Model the fold of this input.
Amino acid sequence: MVSEVDFQIGRILDALEKSGKAGNTIIVFTSDNGLCVGEHGLLGKQNLYEAAVRIPMVICGPGIPQNTVRDAYCYLYDLYPTLCGLAGIGVPATVKGISLEETLRNPEAGKREDILLTYINLQRAIKKDGFKLILYNVDGQRHPQLFDLKADPMELKNLYDDPAYREKREELTALLYARMKAAGDFCDPAKPDWGYPGKLDWKQVVQVNP
Done:
């Protein structure tokens, strides 16, 4: 699969070179979120671990620094205003994404301080300052998790009940609830079982009005 992707991207790049437009083209390589493939005993992506929520993103083109890496939180929908900025196009007022244009040019110019992650009515997570808090709402079970992603990138050591991380746990819990409210999350952490005691089926999912 990797070889196939590499070959097909090569065809695109070759076509750009032959067309004479390679020097005036912004190229973005990214993907859907991945699968755990055995990590944490899981196979799919119906979870909020790094293997299932992180994706590759490579951007190259005129005016974009080469061979550099940016450590900044972003969502895929931040690409829209980013590409508008790079192409000199105005961003519609309805667009909710945040442009990464300045971040691409300046590694210190991160725009988002945290990232909210969700999976239907069963899981919510927040990432900030290299830490991730995951809360669960599965048939009355909670099993909250707190990870130091810098020291533990594979998310193997749950720090949630560690007294040394009590302040971090409380900080991220309050932030997660605030972000859920600000986003219009249909789950309400103030209600028992977030207002949804059982896993939503597809019919219920499409009826939800976030």
